[in-house]
Amino acid sequence: MAADPEKSVVQIINYAQGPNWVEPWRFSRVASGLGSGFVIKGNRIMTNAHVVSWSKQVIVHRYQDPKPYRATVEFIGHDCDLAILKVEDEAFFEGIEALQIGELPATRSSVTTYGYPAGGRQISYTRGVISRIEMQRYAHIYNRSFLTVQTDAAINPGNSGGPAIQDDKVVGVSFQGRPGLENAGFVIPPNIIKHFLEDIEDGKYHGFPDAGISLIKLTNPAFRASLGLPNNSVGARIDRILQPFPKTHELLRVNDVILEVSKQEVGSDGMILYEGNRVHCSVLFDEAQHGEAITLKLWRAGKAIELELPVYVNRADRISGNQHKEPPYLIVGGLVFTELSMNYLGSLGRNLGESLGSRTHYELFYRNHQSEELARAKPIVLSKVLKHPSNVDFGVATRDVVTEVNGHTINSISDLKAALISNTDDFHRFRFLSGAEEALNIADAHRAEEIILKQYNIPNAERLEVLYD
User: Fold this and answer.
1) Catalytic residue numbers?
2) Strands (DSSP E) along 19-123, which ranges?
3) Tens of pLDDT along 74-85?
4) Is the pLDDT of residue 105 over 90?
């Protein structure tokens, strides 16, 4: 008989099919991927979001049991890379004891990771030491950073979603490595796991909130003196307000200095002491749920003030991270328009993506530096030109961002659709970020549409915006 933790760890096989971001009406072939998971209370399985993303079917196997069981994704948090599965057959859970979630492990303490790394059906165990606890970027979403635990226990493909166990409790979920680092793997710590589980208690996953600010170190004595601060190591400066949340703009100011978050002192480097680890103070913002408030102590205009800052999930910067919904698109006269996103650039290949014009990169990676009036919420890019006599002389290179159509500013695929429908002229006129301008004859484009769709095996001329939960 196996020890209890082993019996609670399961193997996951995900049959997934993702979209083609350059030709967004297409999808990739269905491929299988392996991962791990573990049983928690309520007859549920916890795993990584990336293990079950784009799923068409999920199969789970119990420890040393050849029988396959079908599972479904009940909740998924792409920002924190966690997911909950339900198994249709309740017999799956017979004889399995749910694992409990423990506390943040101490550095230099030992953990054992359990999982099913690629290459076998036999469970694998690796023991390692907790070497570091810090904020790190979560690769699955790419544009979010959360607390992460580093260990030298081996975490290989297929281990993802399996538990890291200490004193018979889960102290982490294996989820990623880092290129260039040897003997280093990373697990999602208990505070992130518990936040996720608390979030889904109402039957809906909202996500981790964001303060909507950029905080930088304030170590220059001259700058500190100019703000009326003593020359000590307390307080980091707000240098930008990033999000379109009214309360953030109403309550905070550029050059406010954050002295405390949730009654914990913030260093001049933006760091706090968190359970014995020096980490960025944003870890305290991650403890709040969507819509809750964080207590801040600020230095403003020569005096200290306290306020309650409500924090909310930020979806305005969605395109700068990896997408997990089918991409919208619209085809007119053989011109294929879709959203500019990380996935779109990634599908072009590393070198090709990096060789895109600086303006296009700016639209994606530096939008937060722009004012709300200037930033395009969902930039639209000319992805392809499906060749047809009606567009043979269309002289704009693909991968350019469309900024204006028929005199209307384009900030989303819905804007593009509206600009095309409302046009009463004989021509559609396009302007692009590169400065290029072009036109299509509307009658020719309309006549060509059915031919183009049939010729290129495209089921529909459009897929408009898919709402994100």
Assistant:
1) 50, 81, 160
2) 31-40, 44-47, 55-61, 69-77, 82-87, 110-115
3) 999 999 999 999
4) yes
